[in-house]
């Protein structure tokens, strides 16, 4: 087995204690799985030593807490100081892989004694399709965003149902940080959102008829300015509304009214998603902001709330995790939701979800992006928006 260190998220360092050699070492593992994990899958831990069956692939079955979340408590009878293990769905052909299908080295944990909690995120499985740039992509080269005075290479993903049903029209999701949405070769740290893989899996599970995704890459040196409404964000928003949306509606079979238009992003991309919706509720029906940092840049998003009045059927999804950077978002998020309520926004207009084991990264966003997409799909169904 190949040995390598990986970064494992430590939930509670306060639980670590120095133990004697006679003390049993107890480890609580939380395993997060990707959306494409087959339904009703069983997960197993296997590894070095008697405690983990000496690499038998279906050794220790994990307890399923909820969808995509498993847990196991290890009491290490052989008390190794370095625990090596792998995660499988029961066989070596079904072990955990990277997003792009590469076999992972062994996970390694130092076991210093006492009780400690760790969280591990599975990116993909070796027997399932690896993330890659989809074939059904149309690229808009040097597309001009007039208000910004800049050009972008914009990728447009068309779902498999687009070609299969040539008379149908499709809803559109406009995604910020588009370089991270579809292609592992252009995404940060080689990790992508896997939006196309998620939509195709949702189509397979009959959870949606499909979405067109317009992936708008950031101008990385200007990202904070373009996603801050009071710097260049208003120009970015106007460029989308005046240039990009008319072009997309002309080139593709879209639902070309607000009920079929959505926008989504994470972190600063979450803030511009909200800002665009709040300024242009006549253009977009809803938006989604993952890892929503309401406090960013002196709470400018609060001024966006106060600047615009939106109709009562405009809808917004926001979320954040409970680890790392996201763990600091609770107070400002509560302040943000209170402000929305004081401005006359109805409770049903805003959906908030908290993911206690998630951090601020593309893999965690990829593993839950089906949730905001399902939110958009439920809006289509509620308003009986058809793709015929």
Could you walk me through the main structural features you see in this protein, from its secondary elements to its overall organization?
There is one protein chain. The protein is an alpha/beta fold. The chain has 2 domains: 117 residues, Sandwich (Immunoglobulin-like); 246 residues, Rossmann fold. Helix content is 26%, strand content 26%. It is built from 9 helices and 19 strands. The strands form 4 sheets. The protein has an 8-stranded mixed β-sheet with strand order 12-13-15-14-16-17-18-19, with helices on both faces. Helix 4 packs across helix 5, helix 5 packs parallel to helix 6 and helix 6 runs parallel beside helix 7. The radius of gyration is 22 Å and the shape is globular. The N and C termini lie far apart (53 Å). The N terminus is likely disordered.
Task: Summarize the helices and strands and which ones pair or pack.
Layout: E1 9-10, E2 25-32, E3 44-47, E4 60-61, E5 63-66, E6 69-76, E7 82-88, E8 96-97, E9 107-110, E10 114-121, E11 124-125, E12 137-145, E13 150-157, H1 160-164, E14 172-175, H2 195-204, E15 212-215, H3 223-226, H4 229-251, E16 261-266, H5 268-279, E17 286-290, H6 296-307, E18 315-321, H7 330-342, E19 350-355, H8 362-368, H9 370-382
Report the order of strands and helices.
EEEEEEEEEEEEEHEHEHHEHEHEHEHH
The major beta sheet can be summarized as: 8 strands, mixed
Give me the side-by-side strand order of the main sheet. 12-13-15-14-16-17-18-19
CATH architecture of the largest domain: 3-Layer(aba) Sandwich
Strand fraction: 25-35%
Shape from CA axes? globular
Q: What is the CATH H-level superfamily of the largest domain?
A: Alpha/Beta hydrolase fold, catalytic domain
Give me the Rg, rounded: 22 Å
The CATH topology name of the largest domain reads Rossmann fold
The CATH class label of the largest domain is: Alpha Beta
How many H/I helical runs?
A: 9
Terminal Cα span: 53 Å
| Arithmetic mean of pLDDT | 90
Q: How many domain units?
A: 2
Q: Indicate the percent of residues in helices.
A: 25-40%
- Could you name the ranges where pLDDT drops below 50 across 5 or more consecutive residues? 1-22
SSE class: alpha/beta
Total count of strands: 19
């Amino acid at each position: 087995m190949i040995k390598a260190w990986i970064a494992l998220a430590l939930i509670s360092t306060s639980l670590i204690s120095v133990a004697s050699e006679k003390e049993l070492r107890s480890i609580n593992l939380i395993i997060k799985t990707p959306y494409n994990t087959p339904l009703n899958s069983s997960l197993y831990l296997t590894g070095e030593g008697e405690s983990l069956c000496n690499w038998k692939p279906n050794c220790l079955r994990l307890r399923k807490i909820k969808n995509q979340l498993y847990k196991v408590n290890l009491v290490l009878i052989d008390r190794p100081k370095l625990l090596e293990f792998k995660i499988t769905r029961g066989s070596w052909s079904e072990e955990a892989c990277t997003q792009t299908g590469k076999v992972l080295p062994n996970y390694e944990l130092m076991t210093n004694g006492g009780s400690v909690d760790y969280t591990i995120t599975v990116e993909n499985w070796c027997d399932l399709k690896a993330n890659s740039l989809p074939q059904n992509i149309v690229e808009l080269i040097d597309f001009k965003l007039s208000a910004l005075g800049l050009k972008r290479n914009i990728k447009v993903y068309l779902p498999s149902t687009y070609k299969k049903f040539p008379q149908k029209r499709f809803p559109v999701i406009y995604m910020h940080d588009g370089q991270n949405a579809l292609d592992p070769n252009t995404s940060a740290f080689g990790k992508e959102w896997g939006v196309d893989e998620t939509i195709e899996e949702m189509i397979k599970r009959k959870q949606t008829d499909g979405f067109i995704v317009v992936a708008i890459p950031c101008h990385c040196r200007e990202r904070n300015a373009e996603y801050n409404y009071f710097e260049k964000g208003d120009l970015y928003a106007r460029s989308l509304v005046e240039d990009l949306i008319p072009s997309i509606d002309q080139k593709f079979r879209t639902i070309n009214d607000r009920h079929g238009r959505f926008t989504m992003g994470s972190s600063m991309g979450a803030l511009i998603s909200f800002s665009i919706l709040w300024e242009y509720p006549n253009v977009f029906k809803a938006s989604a902001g993952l890892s929503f940092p309401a406090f960013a840049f002196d709470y400018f998003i609060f001024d966006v709330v106060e600047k615009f009045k939106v109709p009562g059927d405009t809808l917004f999804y926001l979320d954040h995790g409970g680890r790392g950077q996201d763990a600091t978002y609770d107070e400002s998020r509560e302040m943000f939701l209170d402000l929305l309520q004081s401005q006359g926004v109805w409770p049903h207009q805003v959906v908030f979800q908290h993911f206690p084991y998630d951090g601020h990264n593309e893999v965690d966003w990829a593993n839950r992006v089906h949730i905001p997409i399902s939110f958009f799909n439920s809006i289509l169904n509620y308003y009986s928006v058809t793709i015929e």
